[in-house]
Batch of 2 targets.
Target 1
Amino acid sequence: MKKMLAMLLTGAMVFSLAACGNSSPGNAPAQSSSSSGESAAAESEPAGSPVTLNVTTTYAGEDTNAGNYQDAIAAWQEETGNKINDASASSAETFKARVISDFEMGSEPDVLFYFNGVDSNPFVEAGKVVSIEEIREVYPDYASNMKDGMMGASPADGKNYSVPVNGYWEGLFVNKAVCEAAGVDIPTADTTWDEFMEICQKVKDAGYTPIAASFAEIPHYWFEFCIYNYLTPATHNVLPGSVDDDHGKAWVNGISDMKVLYEKGFLPENTLSATDGETFQLFIDGKAAFLIDGSWKVGGIESSTDDIDNFTVTYVPGKNDRKSTDIIGGLSSGWYITRKAWDDPEKQKACVEFISYMTSDDMVSKFASVSATALKNGVQVDESQLTSLAVAGLDMVEGATGMAGAVQDQVTQEARVPVFNGMPDIVTGKADIATAVTDLLALVAAGQ
Amino acid sequence: MAGINNKRNRRHNKISLGTAGIYAVLTAWALTTIYPLFWILMNSFKDKKVIRSDSFSLPFGELFTLDNYRTAFDRVNILGAYRNSLVISLSVAAAVILLSGLASYALVRYDFKMKGLLNSMVVAGMMFPAFATIIPVIRMMNIIGLANTNQIPKSLLAVILPQIAGNLSFAIVVLRGYIAGLPVELEEAAYMEGCNIFQLFFKVVMPLCKPSFATIGIFSFLWSYNDLFTQSFFLKTKPEYSVTVLLSLLTSQEGTNYGLMASSVSLIVFPLLIVYLFLQKYIVKGLTAGAVKG
Amino acid sequence: MSSNIYKNKKPVIFFLIPAFAFLAVFLYYPFFQNILNSFRVINNLGSSAKGWNDPWFTNYVELFKDANIRTALVNTLKMIAATIVGQLGIAIMLALMVDNIKKGQKFFRTVYFFPIVIAATALGLLFNIVFLYDKGMLNQLREMFGAVKLVDFKDDAHAMLTMMIPVTWQYVGFYFIILITGLNNISDDLYEAATIDGASKWQRVRYISLPLLHNVICTCGVLAVTGALKVFDLPWIMFPKGMPSNGTWLTGTYMYYHAFESHNVDYSSAISVLIVILGVITAKIVNAVFKEKDY
């Protein structure tokens, strides 16, 4: 049986060698295709020959723009005669793993629509995507309709790599019927945090749950706004240096406010054992008054209720230096051109044209609808096509006095654990807030 | 099977209290297994808005809608996806039956030094989580040119190969149990008549194990069919989609559209049940063919 | 085994090579990589390692210190007990019953299989609605029978039970099918002979079915304990992230969490190594317990 083992081992070694061999010249296929591309370009004029682009996006599944995207690529293929191999999928964790591993193995797409936060670090750091700066050296007008400062610079090196389309905002969704039944006014731009606490108390006294949130599963939104209350739009999106400095104290104070929410009983009784889906249903069913969530939830609420006019969205009441009208939002995804496609003379131009097509003012307006954009000219939206909830969202963004990105995007999933997953222990007093923040910051530091 | 049972039960023709009790227990359990499927089918015809709040009532009148199915059939080629799924899962099931049959036979009947180790490795192979093995597999598929080709047969093969390996361990564990229960005398008799070892396997053991092979075939088929994880790495463009990938892409985000989820599950499960019923017949046939053993 | 046919061991290699070649290439080699990964620093599934851990066995030290691992192991032990007593016990009873009836065998064999073919997301939704705190099926039933206070079936006190019932229920059909196939392999002449000798139904089960099924039951035992070690989908959907308060972790869900949620892939790899080792050990124990007893 030694023979047997030997054969198994040999087999395994052949494969491991083969695998090693591949990792270094991983771009070999890219090189060969680019050289054949050159010869093809030499033979026929590059302008006329149709190109096939491999495109991967997150416009799939229930993404509100999945339909818009399919229409757009169909129209573009029709217009240019080029072909698109679309490998879009919903942005689940397996999808992220697929994208990252494709980059690792040199089988990345030509054009990618993907997150511009820490999720993009692996391929940005590896130099596998082309910066806007570099593209503009050849195509000076590339993304010229966007505000450079809002394009969503890479956390890895601060440069712009992607052209954003639609952004997000976070706001306070309100179930109007519950507020009415409890006899309270819907919070407005002028409502302060303290007034909001009184409102919550009244809602609770009327027998309703004030706030629909699962602190066990998704404490993220309340975390953002509670610490935002001790910061400003300029400082919110920055990590504290240490738990003892002013910024660190702001975090500790903010998380203490979350504990207060729990202690006052403003959250569902089972907030520490319910899932986010269950608490969201309380809000839809008229058992809870308020919900903080993102612009993507507009579609979620629209598809969950027959009476969309019963719901609205407004500013999350603020305190200290944060005005209620200072919101959280940003542009978290954008279009990338990969180095592989850029170095392929046959594909370079088509990639630029495709992204320019997908990020024109008209197209972005269509995709963005109620969410934020980086367009210099702003969005042109036909409000008559929107629900009252979507219009409320649009109004909220227009009236905003300041906007900061969600600070959690600066924190890797691994580093979020002590505060986010530890939230049940924090609000019940089993864990110390300052310790949790210290642990989070230590994990962030360790990850860099 | 029916004939055999008749023989066995001829002696107690009257239905005893015990038999009634048995049927009561079996039916009670059957209700718990039928209801969820019924519940899903029922909710697939309801508006997504009411599923969470009103999931236990029947979809009649105002509640009834076909919207969830419309979305599933909109823009997508579901028939092509079924074809891809069938190709993948049938290939996996067939390969698993053959390979695990050969291996289990040797592991049961032969005594050799490494047997203990190999048995442990088979059990270990059952425990490997898919996420832990997928990345090297993708790398290999890239090297041998099966991944990222935009060619349907190659992409399907890229799913089939690792899925065969993924189901083999389990199949070997189960088959070992069955083959160990076969009386070795039959093989001895055939050997006396001049069969060589391979004839023994294909002419004696394989036929005797038909029902067992059918069982592991069904499981391999099912797991291959439902294995979204491996599939989602290799089936990337629309023409390559399997049914599971296609429907997961319709429903995954946000996870709030319970109506679509119910219709998707129905579209995944019910064609499968038809296949299962078909194979069920095959099991019975295989059984009667193998009933000469003894 | 004792037979003369199998004294010549040359053919064995031809029987084993095809299957083990597949396993070697697509399972053992990748898992060997996974073992290496457990010593590296890897944040995202699919991204390359940032280097080796310092010291390289950090993750394994962490396994011993991690309170959640302890919870997961204890819970998984409970789950193993539940699967052996619940899943296997119920499956054996059901299989013996179905084997002893005339009509409807085919029907029961089909319907007992249903839970396995339904995606875990759908079952998870169903059970979440059944166990829902406010207006869940069970709480509504309790109200109908006069209960005043709602029970939170997902709180610390009830969570484990709420999780184990659906998981146990889901896979009964799986063992049922394996067992009934085993029962069908038993020759009817044996029952015939026993009946002629005056054996009662129970005696036939006790002295023919169970002993001859012994290998298959052993197989099911191995599958049950290893299954409990790796189960994650249904528990994860009902109790994500070890909710409530890290009390419901299983080895399977905790591994999944580190691979896909906390982006600590190397630690997850270490957990998978632990699971594999435990799987092999428990399988050996099961085999030893069931080993060739003479009835």
Target 2
Amino acid sequence: MRRQCLRRQSISATNDFALAKARQSRVFFIFIIFMGQKCKGGAIVFTLLDLVQPNNLAEAYQILSDKRNNTILGGCAFLKMSSKRIGTAIDLSNLSLSYIKEQSNFIEIGAMTSLRELETHPLFQKYFNGVLPKSVYNIIGVQFRNVVTVGASVYAKYGFSDVITALLVLDTEVELYKGGRMPLVDFLNKPHEKDILVKLWIKKNNRQAAYQNLRKSASDYAVLTVAVSKLEDQWTVVVGARPSKAAIAVKASEVLSKGNLSVAEIEEAAQKAAEELSFGTNRRGTSEYRKALCQVLVKRGIMEVLNANQRDG
Amino acid sequence: MQINVTVNDKLLTWDVAKDEFLADALRSHGFLSVKKACGTSCCGLCTVWVDDKPMLSCTVLALRVHGKKVTTIEGVSKEAEEFARVLTAEGAEQCGFCSPGFIMNVLAMKNELVNPSDEEIIHYLTGNLCRCTGYMGQLRAVKTYLGVAER
């Protein structure tokens, strides 16, 4: 069995080299044990020493705080591809955190709600021009979106996250078990602390929103994501997958909020967004490419919001 | 750990490891239609239904299906055979390796969408990769099977 695992693992040249070197030395047996632990069905996955399914949040938080490598499980799609060694994995499945509830002023989203539920729930088709369903529409496939959770996507502050970009352009707050309730933007900017994301609160209002993204293929990670929204005269522009986490383009939002929205002002806002935010390079695109793309997508987002406003107004 | 799971309408009690994924648990209990391939949650090969929703069994921990209903292609063999005949007639199947996951997702789509458009069909099936047939034959087959081919 271990030999089979080894064979699968040794596809890459790096592993071939490591295997050849290891054979020559005493560490060969240690190497076999290590690879045997890491190889489950041919893929590198996390190591999980224990798993608990607590019955309340207090218990979950206590276990989370007990050891540094204790971790909350979300949908596991991204986590399982890491080589992380988890002491005790905490599964929140028994805490009934999978829900979308409409309250008088807010919409509540439980942390264990799947992205597919976000995509198909009638409430989100009705509000904000369907910006949330649009943001998750291209994430892999239906089977994947049925597994991954909103809470994990937000809590992990993934740079590539489509859903954070869309949530950030709305009036979203996060509720943490220990840290309490705070605006999403504050949560994204604060240093990482161990806590449990319990739910999201989205203020119900007439905010018009649009989501734009560019992907090299339909279900790939986005090269860049942009969300734009408008509530009365206040505009918000958010850019994500830079490839670092989504951020509000404050100056661009101000230009739009103060201006008359002439073509020149829209161009200026798009340029400001590209200038004030930082962009990085990865295998999907260079920082220069992302910067240029940002202007185009911000402009498209603004035009989409203006069209929606005209249609509804 | 012990879990109780209803697989294809049969209540089963399994001993599963804490870090065991559903795909591995199903295969070790004889449900060999469930296959693993990409290991990155994006090929759709391992698709099964959990409480009637299509999910990637390579990504769902086996412990999480305790008390739930799991359906593999063995549990919907009549519908699967019917669709497989259409697939074959449209020349949309070659090696057949991706078929179990693909068929499970097509049947899930049939239960979920009413008269889907081409765009809706393509979108629903984006998570199923096929590396030999190509997708046009599959689209023809799906439309024929759903009775929306004339549109």
